[in-house]
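Have a close read of the entry that follows and walk me through the local backbone shapes. See right below:
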Amino acid sequence: MRKRIIIMNFLKNNFKGDSHIWGIIVGLCVFSLLAVYSSSGSLAYRFKEGNTAIYIIRHAGLLAIGLAIAFILHKFPSKFYARISHLLIIIVVPLLAVTLFFGVEENNATRWLSIFGITFQTSDLAKIALIMFLAERLASKQNDINNFKKTLLPMFIIIGIVCILILPANFSTSIMLFAICVMLLFVGRASLKQLASLCAISLVIIGIVVASLYGMQKIGIDNALTQRATTIVNRIERYFDKDPQKDHLGYNYQENQAKIAVGTGGFFPSGPGTSVQRNFLPHSYSDFIFAIIIEEWGLIIGGIFLVLLYITLLYRSIVIVQKCDKTFPALLVIGLSLSIVFQALINMAVAVGLMPVTGQPLPLISMGGTSILFTGAAFGIILSVSREVGKKDELKARKKDGETVQEEELEDKVVTET
């Protein structure tokens, strides 16, 4: 009993912020360890002579680092993120440009950049940096929010630059980030009419560029950009082409194997390690891990419960936003929570056949490197804001009890603890 009290006090004193979100992080990590251990079996037999321990130990290490990042970042006040937002966007834009032209290529896409032997996906950093920058700009420009040339256009130009640099190598991430930024602008009280006009123009330009590159590939102009455009168009065509006669040619092989995994999962769990489709489904440990989770854990636990974890994250983020008395932290929480939840829903939709294949990992669950680390960073920043909100709730409670406490005192306490 005494040990339990000591542990509870330790957690309460060190892990501040929304306890529900901390619980969601732990739940996702548990799901992740079980799912990756099972789904990486075929990968281990192909490359590591059947030694699955190599992958699960590496993955557990990455999860531990991700949790450490979340823990460290949740100690910083939201003011810190506002201050570094401009610096991050200045760093990110050249990094994306270097990645596009000189990055590490895989599957005809240069999404990774290697610096001093460390390889990471720059688009993951770009997502956090752009959301942070946009939240800061919207917060500081609330008095001029309806001034198109002074406020909305400059922000939209930055959004366009970042998304265009991501687009050739990672179409789905670019479109998802663009959609999140548009929603953030809408929440930040930007003019709906102006937003709609800019979005329509942007989508037309993207369509023309992709169609042009696809046409160039068809007439024999073969390069990285035309190959990526062809991949994008082919994935969309395959999704809408439901001709069963083409299945024997492997036309929709990944999608069909994922559907088999989901279909054989049933309502109740059969247990970890019982998946059959992990031996046939490419990227069962990353892009299609949700299908394996449903196959092993059933529709109720593996499907509905996992979806509810992400939806609960969005709900708790909204609760945090409602308690914020400043614009920047509120917009920051909305943007980051949407980035996590949108990515999760896209991954799940692909696994069950509701969307074309995109290559989006399941946040904090899929096996990977930078995705886990930057998802941990996003969680840490969200918890940082909820920590400040909790401090203000504590202040109100102490005032209600008759204590004389200045708000500045509590704010200093937050900064000192970091």
Strands lie at 104-106, 109-115, 118-121. Residues 289-323 form the longest helix (35 residues). Residues 25 and 244 are 41 Å apart (CA to CA).
